[in-house]
Specification:
The complex is a heterodimer of chains A (314) and B (314). By secondary structure, chain A is mainly α. Chain A has 13 helices and no strands. Chain A is globular, with a radius of gyration of 19 Å. Chain A starts with a helix and ends with a helix. Chain B contains 14 helices and no strands. The longest helix of chain B is centred in the middle third of the chain and has 40 residues. Classes of the chains: A mainly alpha (314), B mainly alpha (314).
Chain lengths: 314, 314
């Protein structure tokens, strides 16, 4: 019973925020412009602030864990490769292949993963996932750019210069690097600066979750059911299960295990949709993957947390 | 030196978050529609959640202070009455008188005050203030509308009825009073609902402060400058000094004194612009007052905190 309540308390507040966003959109609270500008604000300013804050305040000697980091990087690359192979086998259209593969492995680490773990372990959990994300996010970005370029129906070859610029100018990457620099050089901000940074950083998650709900579109599903099922089952069940079993076998427990769980069980991320649209991939499928994986992740995340808690792994 | 740091920590985060909002606007992150929708989100969902959470989780037997509440409500009646008469000296036009009295007496006693209390005394301070605010803010709203009605140049009594209904069903008031009722009745909400409200509320002040910064427009002050200065002077210097002196002689110290400070020293409420428009007062003038008092309040609030701290009152 206690585990049940614990799991519900972790998962529900997150989804309530998404649902509130969806309802407000339906009630006409949000214009398209608000959602677009808000997204820009969230992903270019607020979330980078949050990442910066949790990295610069992290106690590296306590939160840095090279086994965990290497595990996550290897697992991420493997899930990417497996998704791509799967998409190659089941679909012939390149645009669909790109969007399908991306939907199967590109998780919402920074938003859903991070807020899950921080409601389980507070600041300490956030620090642990932030350090991992600082590496995973650029890698994930590179992988998706390569993937979508390969499957770009109007392919012009992989644009390595473009990828590089994309990575260097990514606000999350900049924030992560700055956070590392401040942390290592042991710069201490005065209290009022810290308060300001934490005020701004504190807006990120809830605001982005509300926007996420507001951006949900249940577009026409006809002919897309199979693709959506592939991507949701891959993202929410197959890959998380594989990664968690592997993590368990390797002896990861407690917060370490939870980081793996949160990184790999998070639903498909919205930024995949934007990228799919930009790179001529199947944007409709991307949007559907985001909506359905986010919805069903409420159940799968709950289950994963509940089971791991009951088995005493976390 | 300690007192200086204490005061800087109290006021700087507020200023910096507002400044960030202004900067973001200059970088193209804001638009009229974004600010409007954002304010709607804050006024209807975020801030009410914040107040609800604070009042609901407050321990009334410890934080409720009847004499402090009576003092604050009396202070409102006094300041609004003085403002009503001073407005007659400032202008001979009713539309300007309405905006001026509102500008002098209607404080930004939610966002600004909550954030200030939080900076000074952490979450406990925020809760203590919220308990007072649950009664204080409805009263301020009521007095404000009353004066705007008297100075309404069109004198449409139909509007008065509509406005009163609007005020009674103001989400903020509904949230505050229902939280008082729940708290006193001892009913317990599920903790996932409470965390959701806490999450929503936690972003309320900072998000709204960013919007305040985004909404700043300089220039076009010209002909109203003298009037704006008079109003700001009453709002930021005369009223706070009257209230703080009275509070001192009434024997309030520590958090209690800080609550009076936080309740009466903030700049003019942002909502007063919309309110002026609704009640046919000079809304352009009202908007200019908001910007002026917000800017100068950084300095005056700093001084009040610093002096009270140095005199060992807080």
């Amino acid at each position: 019973m206690e585990n049940l309540i614990f799991s519900l308390n972790v998962v529900l507040p997150l989804f309530f925020a998404v649902v509130i966003g969806y309802i407000l959109k339906k009630l006409g609270f949000f214009s398209e412009e608000f959602l677009n500008k808000g997204d820009k604000l969230a992903f270019k300013i607020l979330i980078p602030f949050q990442l910066f804050r949790s990295i610069y305040t992290a106690d590296f000697s306590a939160s840095y864990n090279s086994t965990l980091l290497i595990f996550c990087i290897v697992a991420l690359i493997l899930t990417g490769v497996l998704s791509t192979l799967f998409a190659l086998c089941v679909r012939k259209d390149n645009a669909v292949r790109g969007a399908l593969a991306q939907g199967m492995f590109r998780g919402n680490i920074i938003l859903i993963g991070a807020s899950l773990i921080s409601s389980m372990y507070n600041e300490e959990g956030l620090a642990a996932i932030s350090i991992v994300s600082a590496f995973l996010i650029p890698i994930l970005n590179i992988m998706c750019v390569i993937l979508l370029s390969i499957f770009d129906p109007q392919r012009k070859g992989v644009d390595f210069k473009g990828i590089l610029i994309n990575i260097i100018t990514n606000p999350l990457v900049i924030a992560g690097v700055l956070g590392l620099i401040v942390n290592i050089s042991q710069i201490n901000f005065p209290q009022f600066m810290e308060k300001t940074i934490s005020d701004i950083a504190g807006i990120a998650t809830t605001f982005a979750l509300i926007l996420l709900g507001g951006s949900f579109e249940f577009s026409d599903m006809r002919g897309r059911v199979a693709d959506v099922i592939y991507s949701v089952v891959g993202k929410l069940i197959v890959f998380p299960a594989l990664c968690m079993v592997a993590a368990y076998m390797l002896g990861m427990r407690g917060m370490e295990f939870s980081v793996v769980m949160c990184v790999f069980s998070a639903p498909t991320t919205v930024s995949g949709y934007t990228m799919a649209k930009m790179m001529n991939s199947d944007a409709q499928l991307s949007a559907l993957s985001v909506v359905f994986s986010t919805l069903f992740s409420a159940f799968t995340l709950f289950l994963f947390i509940y089971i791991s808690k009951t088995l005493g792994i976390i | 030196m300690d007192n200086l740091i204490f005061s800087v920590n109290g006021i700087m985060p507020l200023f910096l978050v507002i400044a960030l909002g202004y900067l973001l606007k200059k970088c193209g992150f804001a638009s009229k529609k974004f600010i409007d929708d954002g304010n709607k989100l804050a006024a209807n969902i975020l801030i009410p959640s914040l107040l609800f959470y604070n009042v609901y989780s407050a321990d009334f037997s410890k934080t409720f202070n009847a004499s402090l509440l009576a003092f604050c409500l009396g202070g409102l009646v006094l300041t609004f009455s003085i403002a009503f008469f001073v407005a007659r000296i400032i202008s001979d036009k009713d539309s300007m008188r309405g905006a001026a009295s509102q500008g002098m007496a209607r404080s930004n006693s939610v966002i600004y005050s909550l954030e200030l209390m939080n900076n000074l005394y952490g979450a406990a301070g925020e809760r203590a203030y919220s308990v007072i605010a649950a009664f204080f803010v409805p009263m301020a709203n009521f007095l404000n509308v009353l004066i705007l009605c008297i100075y309404d140049p069109t004198r449409k009594s139909a509007d008065l009825k509509k406005t009163i209904i609007k005020i009674v069903f103001n989400p903020f008031i509904v949230a505050g009073l229902s939280a008082v009722a729940l708290n006193l009745s001892g009913l317990v909400l599920p903790s996932s609902v409470i965390s959701t409200l806490n999450n929503l509320g936690a972003i309320g002040s900072s998000f709204t402060l960013i919007l305040v910064g985004m909404d700043f427009e300089f220039g076009s002050v010209g002909k109203n400058l003298k009037k704006i200065l008079s109003v700001s002077c009453v709002k930021l210097i005369i009223f706070p000094i009257i209230m703080l002196t009275a509070a001192y002689f009434a024997g309030f110290r520590g958090t209690d004194f800080a609550i009076v400070l936080t309740g009466f020293c903030p700049p003019t409420a942002v909502a007063s612009y919309a309110m002026a428009k609704l009640m046919h007062a000079d809304s352009e003038f009202a908007g200019q007052i908001v910007i002026f008092t917000t800017l100068f309040s950084i300095l005056t609030t700093f001084i009040y905190i610093f002096v009270s701290r140095s005199l060992n009152i807080i």
